[in-house]
Design goal:
binds zinc ion, alpha/beta, globular, about 260 residues, 6-stranded parallel sheet
Length: about 260
C-alpha cells in the first residue's frame, strides 16, 4: 500500500472528533430514574448524556437543583416539549388525551410551547444551545413539518427511526436513533462495534433504566454498555447530542476536517 493510501485510510477512520465513531446516549421524558440511576451511572465513568425534558413533568419542579447540577456537570438538558403532545389520530394512540393531542394543535401553538420549554430549560441551565427530540417521534401536524419553524432554535432534532449514519448523511432535523426496550448488553455493544467499523453516528434512546418507565433497559445491561464505551474511549467519541449535532453541521458546511499538520501545507 502506498503512503497516500495509508494516510487517507487513517483519516477515514478518525472522522468523528479524531475517533472512529460517535455515540450519543439520550434519555427521554424527565423521569425520576434519570436522576436516581442514570446521572450517577454516567458520572461514575465520566461520560456525558442528553436528557430530553418535558417541561410540565413534576420531576422538573420537584428536583430542579439536581437537573441544574447535572447540566453543570456536562450533561445536556434537551427539549422534549412542554406537554409532550403526540398525534392521537394515529393507530395505537389511545393513550393520547384531548389536552395533548398534537393533531389538534395549531402549528404556532406547538412552536410557541416548544420555545417556552427552551426558556424554562435556559432558566435551569443558563445555556442557549441545545437539541430537540420529537415526542412520540411525530414530525408533522397535518401536512406541516413543525420543526421547520424551529431550526434556528436548536442545534438539531432527534427522531425515532433507527439507523447508523455517516456525518454527511445525518439529517439534523430528524437524527436517527435506536430505541432500547429490553435488549441485552450484547445487542447494544454490537451496535457500538458496528458504528466503529462503519465510522458512523450511533444514538441510543432510553426511557427507564432499571425501572421507572414501561419502556426499560436492565440496569446491569446499561452499566455494561457504559463500561464498554469507557474502556474504548480512545476510539469512540461519547458526547451530548448538542455537541455532536454542532460537529455534524460543521462537517456538512464543508469546513476542513483534516489534521492541522496537513491544513498548514
Ligand atoms: Zn417521550
Amino acid at each position: 500500500m502506498s503512503f497516500c493510501c495509508v494516510q487517507s485510510q487513517a483519516q477515514s477512520t478518525k472522522l468523528w472528533n479524531n475517533k472512529q465513531c460517535a455515540v450519543v446516549l439520550t434519555y427521554d421524558d424527565a423521569i425520576d430514574i434519570d436522576l436516581d440511576n442514570v446521572v450517577p451511572a454516567l458520572d461514575s465513568v465520566k461520560l456525558k448524556g442528553t436528557f430530553y425534558l418535558i417541561g410540565s413533568s413534576p420531576v422538573i419542579e420537584k428536583r430542579m437543583p439536581e437537573w441544574r447540577l447535572a447540566a453543570k456537570n456536562g450533561h445536556e438538558l434537551g427539549n422534549h416539549a412542554l406537554y409532550h403532545p403526540c398525534d392521537g389520530s394515529l393507530p395505537g394512540r389511545s393513550f393520547v388525551g384531548p389536552d395533548n393531542d398534537l393533531s389538534k394543535y395549531t402549528v404556532s401553538r406547538a412552536v410557541s410551547e416548544i420555545r417556552l420549554n427552551n426558556t424554562l430549560l435556559k432558566a435551569i441551565d443558563g445555556k442557549t444551545e441545545r437539541t430537540f427530540a420529537y415526542p412520540c417521534g411525530d414530525l408533522k401536524i397535518g401536512d406541516v413539518y413543525f420543526y421547520d419553524q424551529l431550526k434556528k432554535d436548536f442545534a438539531g432534532a432527534r427522531g425515532v427511526s433507527p439507523g447508523l449514519q455517516l456525518a454527511s448523511d445525518v439529517k439534523l432535523d430528524n437524527i436517527r436513533c435506536y430505541m432500547i426496550n429490553g435488549q441485552s448488553a450484547e445487542y447494544m455493544i454490537n451496535l457500538v462495534k458496528e458504528a466503529q467499523k462503519s465510522h458512523t453516528l450511533l444514538v441510543f434512546l432510553f426511557h427507564g433504566v432499571g425501572g421507572g418507565h414501561s419502556l426499560n433497559v436492565d440496569l446491569q445491561a446499561h452499566s455494561k454498555l457504559l463500561h464498554y464505551l469507557k474502556t474504548n474511549q480512545k476510539n469512540i467519541w461519547v458526547a451530548p447530542m448538542v455537541d455532536v449535532a454542532k460537529f455534524v453541521a460543521t462537517q456538512q458546511a464543508g469546513k476542513p476536517s483534516l489534521p492541522k499538520s496537513i491544513m498548514k501545507n
